[in-house]
From TrEMBL:
Keywords: Signal. One of its GO terms (molecular function) is phosphatidylcholine lysophospholipase activity. Residues 1-22 form the signal peptide. CDD domains: Lysophospholipase_L1_like. This is Arylesterase. It holds the Pfam family Lipase_GDSL_2. Gene3D superfamilies: SGNH hydrolase. Residues 30-191 form the SGNH hydrolase-type esterase domain.
Length: 210
């Protein structure tokens, strides 16, 4: 038994040394709500799963960490962000938040401030940021709706970060691509969302400006 100890110690040491490198891949941290958490969609059909497959298939080493939570607001995401940044040390942070703020009629100035603070925290942690824009139904009136939509371009412009103008472009309003609730994309819509993200994200990864 005692003769095995050196071998066991060596194996333990090798495991300790090699385990961190197994996950030593650049992380893309996704901070979002139910549109990114996969509400109502099987794991294999989610746009986030497809994104990881696309990254791997096209030779990118990035590992997607999906920290999205159904029902999340910009305030909630902001409160979770420091711990996520410390734990994952992401190369990129993709922020997909604010939709629930708008649906609940929350103060727009606060939503804008939360998103801007999330961007600033991410950049302070040496991560690059991609902001995902959102639109809401006109239930709260045209003024609120327009002001809400303008938040994303405003934050992206002030912080000089790339923007996907609207996550659900080509999906929202199309009953063949939406779940019965009219808010979340179905499996077919998930594929369109992936392309909306990819057309902005891929050039950023290819540019080597990380």
């Amino acid at each position: 038994m005692f003769r095995l100890l050196p071998s066991l110690l060596l194996c333990s040491l090798l495991l300790h040394l090699t385990t961190p490198f197994a996950n030593d891949r650049p992380v893309i941290l996704l901070l979002g709500d139910s549109l990114s958490s996969g509400y109502g969609i099987a794991l294999s059909e989610r746009w986030t799963t497809a994104l990881q497959d696309r990254l791997t298939g096209q030779g990118f080493e990035h590992r997607l960490v999906n920290a999205s939570v159904t029902g999340e607001t910009s305030r909630g995401g902001l409160s979770r962000l420091p711990e996520l940044l410390q734990r994952h040390r992401p190369r990129w942070v993709v922020i997909e938040l604010g939709g629930n703020d708008g649906l609940r009629g929350l103060e727009l100035a606060q939503t804008r401030q939360n998103l801007q603070k999330a961007v600033q925290l991410s950049r302070a942690a040496k991560a690059r940021v991609l902001l995902i824009g959102m639109k809401i139904p006109p239930n709260l009136g045209p003024v609120y709706t327009r002001r809400f939509e303008a938040i994303y371009a405003n934050v992206a412009g002030k912080e000089w970060i790339p923007l996907v103008p609207f996550l659900l472009e080509g999906v929202a309003g199309d009953s063949t691509l939406m779940q019965a609730d009219g808010i979340h994309a179905n499996a077919h819509g998930q594929a369109v969302i992936l392309e909306n993200i990819w057309q902005v994200l891929e050039p950023l990864l290819e540019s080597g400006t990380e």
